Amino acid sequence: MIWAKEETFSRDEIKRIQVEKLREVVKRVYENVPFYRKKLLQAGIKPENIQSIEDVRLLPLTTKDDLRDNYPYGLFAVPMDEIVRVHASSGTTGKPTVVGYTAQDIESWTELVARIVTCAGVTKSDVVQIAFGYGMFTGAFGLHYGVERVGATVVPASSGNTEKQLLFMRDFGTTVLVSTPSYALYLAEVAQKMGIMKDLKVRLGLFGGEGCSEEVRKELEKQWGMVATDNYGLSELIGPGVSGECHLKDGLHINEDHFLVEVLDPKTLEPVKEGENGELVVTTLTKEGLPLLRYRTRDIASVTYEKCACGRTTARMSKVSGRTDDMLIIRGVNVFPSQVESVLLDTEGVTPHYQLVVTRRGALDNLEVKIEVTEEFSKSADRKRWKSLKEDIERKLSVILSLKAHVTLAAPSTLERFQGKARRVVDLREAI
Ligand SMILES: [Zn+2]
Fold first, then answer.
1. What separation in Å is there between the alpha carbon of 52 and the centre of ligand 1?
2. Which end of the chain is more exposed for a tag (fewer CB within 10 A), N or C?
3. Distance, CA 64 to ligand 1 centroid (Å)?
4. Distances (CA, A) of 426 to 311, 351, 366, 367
5. In angstroms, what is the span from residue 245 Cα to ligand 1's centroid?
6. pLDDT tens-digit profile of 120-144?
7. What Å distances lie between residue 91 and 70, 97, 137, 239, 317, CA to CA?
8. What is the 312 CA–ligand 1 centroid distance (Å)?
9. Is 299 a member of any domain?
10. Closest by alpha carbon to 93, among 135, 64, 136?
11. How far is 278 from 284, CA to CA, in rounded Å?
């Protein structure tokens, strides 16, 4: 089922709507947000200069730092009287970023989430358990209202309390789970231990809040016997509801009548070709409380405009494959730790413990990938197998990275361990 007619508009119709709304949002921020007014004046741009979608490139970019610098309400485009809700995302450093919603923003948000949950396959017959934390984070409330709009039954379980959560799931006949992929894996582990997995009826998962690789998806589908779908949103933009997968799981349908998505080379800020990876840069076309022009998401993905077999005509983005913050440029090639990780997850005999070491000899960058082998491999393998494993990984890496990396296999438990976020990259190029 398709929730809204806008999801099946022709490309010309979508473009027409986007240009019209783009002009309106530029007018709104020009008139109401001093930060943007100043930037637009500096760039010599007036709302009436926006004549086509391509004209979006005339507009200034917005970064997370801009939101922090204007903490808490400096970028809001309406008086506080009109704001009916705020959410905030906690950064790992510095001040949180705050988003404000008008009543109309909440209404749009509800409709957009209704679209993506319908797109994933939720119907009014479902019992949907929301295991995101209810609070300042946008995930739980965003999904909550959208699922209710569809007419399904919401179980607002929130996060944590894992055993109780699983008992709700069994007793209430939960058919759809909404959570982060990592929490869903943990829930599966506990359900197995409690011996109740066989009593659960979860058939569909809607995952978001963090990246979900194809490998993690396969694992979730195996553990739960469910269809696992990915959806995408950022609190700065609205929360969940920017895009989501249909049952074909071939890219996330973007709600293009509300979000104009560009894919830019993060270095040059020029658009990349259709289907190529780059940074997602998003303009909110309808937000009233906190409209953002060309927001740099730091997320890396690609976009295709090919029509999907499900009948929707909206552009589809790939899963997010990495963050620009993690990107390395080696011999002019963009390299992400997540690409290395995908090779390791697909290779027998190695663990996900790895480190990338970049050095420079003369003018040439050198990438070394240190990888720990498993206990089992280390005990049983002879010299020949070590050599062939190393060569096998080097071959796979050269395909996925488009450059040659040198692999060093390390004995189990020899690479440095990290509390929290791992330090995957050691870049020694500056130091040499
Ligand atoms: Zn589709």
1. 27
2. C
3. 31
4. 46, 19, 12, 10
5. 7
6. 999 999 999 999 999 999 999 999 9
7. 15, 7, 11, 15, 24
8. 6
9. yes
10. 64
11. 19
> Could you give the CA distance from residue 265 to residue 309 in angstroms, rounded to a whole number?
29
Cβ proximity of 315 and 301 under 8 Å: no
Q: What is the CATH number of the domain that holds 246?
A: 3.40.50.12780
In total, how many domains does the chain have?
Answer: 2
Chain centroid to CA 269: how far? 20
Q: Find the 299 Cα to ligand 1 centroid distance in Å.
A: 21
Range of the domain at 422: 328-427
Per DSSP, the residues of 270-296 read: PBPPTT--EEEEEEESS-SSS--SSEE
Choose one of 286, 321, 356: the last residue of a domain.
321
Please count the other Cβ atoms lying within 10 Å of the Cβ belonging to residue 190.
Answer: 14
Asked if residue 107 is part of any domain, the answer here is yes
Show the DSSP H helices in 44-137 as ranges.
64-69, 103-120
Q: Cα(121) to centroid of ligand 1, in Å?
A: 11
Q: Does 267 share its domain with 405?
A: no
Measured in angstroms, how far is the CA atom of residue 309 from the centroid of ligand 1? Answer: 6
Cis upstream peptide for 60 (omega within 30°): no
Residues 257, 363 share a domain: no
CA of 246 to the centre of ligand 1 (A): 5
Judge whether 36 lies within some domain. no
Nearest to 13 by CA among 271, 314, 291, 244: 314
Determine contact, residues 255/142, Cβ cutoff 8 Å: no
CA of 5 to the centre of ligand 1 (A): 14
Render pLDDT for 202-250 as a digit per residue (tens, 0 to 9). Answer: 999 999 987 788 878 998 999 999 999 999 999 999 999 999 999 999 9
CB 350 within 8 A of CB 371: yes
What average pLDDT does range 293-297 have in this prediction? 97
Last residue of a domain, one of 321, 347, 376: 321
Whether 203 and 335 share a structural domain: no
**Cα-to-centroid distance, 8 and ligand 1 (Å):** 11
In the reported structure, the alpha carbon of residue 7 is separated from the centroid of ligand 1 by a whole-number distance in angstroms of 10
Domain assignment present for residue 198? The answer is yes
* Reported pTM: 0.83
The rounded Å distance from CA 68 to ligand 1 centre is 36
How remote is the CA of residue 41 from the centroid of ligand 1, in Å?
A: 41
